[in-house]
Amino acid sequence: MDSDGTSCAVSQDKSAYWTPALYFVGENEITELVEQTGGMLVYYFLNGKNIKAFPPGFQMIAGDSRQRNFTWPIPDPEKSFWSGDAVSQKALSQKALGFNCLNYSRDPEPSLFRHFLPDKSYLDGNCRDGIRLELMFPSCWNGRDTDTSNHKSHVAYPSLVMTGDCPVGFSTQLPGLYYETIWNTYAFKDRAGKFVLSNGDPTGMRPS
């Protein structure tokens, strides 16, 4: 961004980042913003070879605000078995979204382990330190366009989401951008209602 300052801890980072907010909708239909804890965390992974920096003006979107169900096996098969449709861009884009149940008194869940928002009873009973929304962005680029009309078609996921081979036509490798946001869902324990992402999504992709 063309700015003299930034809210990022790394002062050189002038990029703009956005993820949807999380709301709680109670029995009376009153909507409350769920508190973020720990800020927003951005990781840049340098997986692969000959990684190129993001060019000036580069933009992209990850995720699908209209997707309401996760359409692949649960849990994910071991990655060595991924093949065919399981490594299609449709599949990889769904597997790039994670909802991590946080309970620091237990062993942690793997990143990108669960691809849907658990229901409230599960959150109340298991996730006393909240829920962490995880999003991996595509890291394969067509090497030409800094943006496209849908902000997606100029990039693609490698074959294992975070690592792997880039598909034909997207041979330029970019840094792997991985985003985390933690929400204090436990503050609403034992209250009747549901959690809804700010785009109106109450599931984050429910299993089909």
Please provide a written account of the structure.
- InterPro entries: DUF1996.
- Pfam families: DUF1996 (PF09362).
- Residues 3-205 form the DUF1996 domain.
- The chain is mostly beta strands.
- It has one domain.
- 7% of the residues lie in helices and 25% in strands.
- It has helices at 89-95, 120-126; strands at 22-26, 31-33, 36-45, 69-70, 97-101, 131-136, 140-141, 155-156, 172-173, 176-183, 193-197, 206-207.
- The protein has a 4-stranded antiparallel sheet. The protein has a 3-stranded antiparallel sheet with strand order 2-1-11, with no helix packed on it.
- A hairpin with a 4-residue loop joins strand 1 and strand 2.
- The longest helix has 7 residues, at 89-95.
- The mean pLDDT is 89.
